[in-house]
Amino acid sequence: MSQTLPLTPDALLEALIFTSPQPVTLEALADATGLSTEETEATLETLEKHLAARGLRLQRHKQRIQIVSAPEAAPYVEHMLDLEVNLRLSQAAMETLAIIAYAQPITRPQIESIRGVNSDSVLRTLLSAGLIEEMGRADSVGRPILYGTTFEFLQQFGLKSPEELPPVDAPEKKSPEADSSSLRSSE
């Protein structure tokens, strides 16, 4: 580090992330401060720990970082700003969103093979709500669009990163004997 920072490194990163109109990358923060990427990452971890006891959080998604209000503060923020949360998703939209969140990046044909139904309309709804985004194209026949979740998705569901999604519990498989014994007992 060749220059003296005007603030502590974590305070400077906090100011830069807070004032940025878009989520920023680790590299952009390192470039702006003159810190190495390793020093920047370590400083972000320190900042994240400091914010955990406050009303703000660092949110990371696809190599980008932003500061958001703590999910626990959401009802108070909505009340103070007179926000009306009107995000209402159908069962099909929630199902599709869950598939994308857990399998991203994923194509429409892959989503449809899991759901068993056409998903064009649901994908348009999720795209217009800003919950998913196009992430590029797959290297397969037809080069289908790859979909993934957005920062808006993380904010709506109170997550700091996609890694915070709850684990998916696979349904327990019943043994054939259990099925036949339950049939016999109900006769």
What would you say this structure looks like, in words?
The structure is a single chain. With 187 residues, the chain is of the alpha+beta class. The protein has two domains: 9-74, Winged helix-like DNA-binding domain superfamily/Winged helix DNA-binding domain (Arc Repressor Mutant, subunit A), CATH 1.10.10; 91-164, Orthogonal Bundle (Arc Repressor Mutant, subunit A), CATH 1.10.10. It contains nine helices and six strands; from the N terminus they run αβααββααβααββαα. The chain has helices at residues 9-19, 26-33, 37-52, 74-80, 91-103, 108-115, 120-128, 151-156, 176-186, and strands spanning 24-25, 56-61, 64-69, 106-107, 132-137, 145-149. Helix 1 crosses helix 3 (37-52) and helix 2 packs across helix 3. The chain is globular, with a radius of gyration of 22 Å.
Give the key terms.
globular; Arc Repressor Mutant, subunit A; alpha+beta; 187 residues
Count of individual beta strands: 6
**CATH fold naming of the largest domain:** Arc Repressor Mutant, subunit A
Main sheet properties: 3 strands, antiparallel
Kindly report the average pLDDT value.
Answer: 85
Reading the helices and strands in chain order gives HEHHEEHHEHHEEHH
Q: Into which percentage range does the β-strand content fall? A: 5-15%
Could you say how many structural domains there are in total?
2
CATH H-level homologous superfamily name of the largest domain = Winged helix-like DNA-binding domain superfamily/Winged helix DNA-binding domain
Distance between the termini: 78 Å
What is the helix fraction of residues, given as a range? Answer: 40-55%
Uncertain runs: 175-187
Helix segment count? 9
CATH class category label of the largest domain: Mainly Alpha
Question: If strands are numbered along the chain, what order do they take across the biggest sheet?
Answer: 1-3-2
Helix and strand composition category: alpha+beta
